[in-house]
Amino acid sequence: MEQRQEAEKQEEEQALAYRDRIGFVGAGQMGEALICGFIRAGICSPSQLCACVRSEERRRRMLELGLQVFGDATLGGAAELAAASDIIFLGVKPQYLDGVLEALQPHVTPNHLIVSIAAGVRLASLEAALPEGSRVIRVMPNTPCLIGQAASAYVLGNHATNEDAAKIYMLLSSAGLAVSVEERMMDAVTGLSGSGPAYVFLAIEAMADGAVAAGLPRDKALALAAQTVSGAARMVLEGSGDGSLTHPALLKDRVTSPAGTTIVGLAELETSGVRGALIRAVKAAAKRSENLG
Ligand SMILES: NC(=O)c1ccc[n+]([C@@H]2O[C@H](COP(=O)([O-])OP(=O)(O)OC[C@H]3O[C@@H](n4cnc5c(N)ncnc54)[C@H](OP(=O)(O)O)[C@@H]3O)[C@@H](O)[C@H]2O)c1
């Protein structure tokens, strides 16, 4: 009985999300990744989506994806987008956010849920720039959202409801992993998963370079390097078979045989300070996010 009620509740929540019209103020790298992630997941159709764009290139791309398109948010686009949306994603760079919020503010109603993906911008500043009582959620997604493999974190503002929490979880988890965090953790999330795809791209490129130097053709080196990273990550996420994470140190120990090739490679990484470099990279990006706020 309890299970049936739970299933009915979930269906009801899903139906709510399916009906929402979602607007994107700014549809660049991250905005497009979210749009494509949602469409690909089937969580909403292009006819439920719209976007404010500035450049002709962005307009063409959004039309190609089947979205309704409005112009520059600060030149009238925000009003049109607000009228056509229930959920509004703020997808501009942090330095453009003030202007966008000023343009959007008069058009935000109690029916709107505002979702900011801007790095470093605090809920308090977002809420202060919007009408009193606005329902706001801060999200840090990442670009693998494009292929349904996002790692996203979110935190609710003061006036966001449980229903809003269910909606954002459903949207984000349709395109990857979604976790709720406290706001004080958002800078760390930004330094880790928000910026992290770039660290991994660099690692894949460098590993492939090493293989090319050792005699492998470039295309095969790149494919093997990327699949190695993907497979290793899946072992941490799924290797236990019961949904719990497997500690990477355990997996590493399992693949290092005495006097083997892997331990020699690992020793080289440790000598080069790769572990420390990654720790410093995440901390530096987190600090940068803190300074943006
Ligand atoms: N990229 C990531 O990996 C990532 C990850 C997590 C969070 N974020 C956050 O996502 C946000 C967007 O980053 P991004 O990398 O997607 O930047 P982006 O590629 O530059 O996209 C931002 C888009 O906003 C548009 N825009 C700016 N002002 C506008 C206005 N007044 N009206 C309509 N459109 C406007 C820009 O138009 P133009 O094309 O004309 O410049 C651009 O297409 C940032 O706040 C960032 O912190 C990014």
UniProtKB/TrEMBL annotation:
State the signal peptide span. none
Q: Where is the Pyrroline-5-carboxylate reductase dimerisation domain?
A: 183-292
Reactions catalysed: L-proline + NADP(+) = (S)-1-pyrroline-5-carboxylate + NADPH + 2 H(+); L-proline + NAD(+) = (S)-1-pyrroline-5-carboxylate + NADH + 2 H(+)
**Localization:** Cytoplasm
Which pathway does UniProt place it in? Answer: Amino-acid biosynthesis; L-proline biosynthesis; L-proline from L-glutamate 5-semialdehyde: step 1/1
Biological process (GO) annotations held by this record are: L-proline biosynthetic process
Alphabetized GO MF terms: pyrroline-5-carboxylate reductase activity
Please provide one cellular component term from the Gene Ontology annotations of this protein.
Answer: cytoplasm
Q: EC number(s) per UniProt?
A: 1.5.1.2
- From the Swiss-Prot or TrEMBL record, give the protein name: Pyrroline-5-carboxylate reductase
Identify the species of origin. Answer: Coccomyxa subellipsoidea (strain C-169)
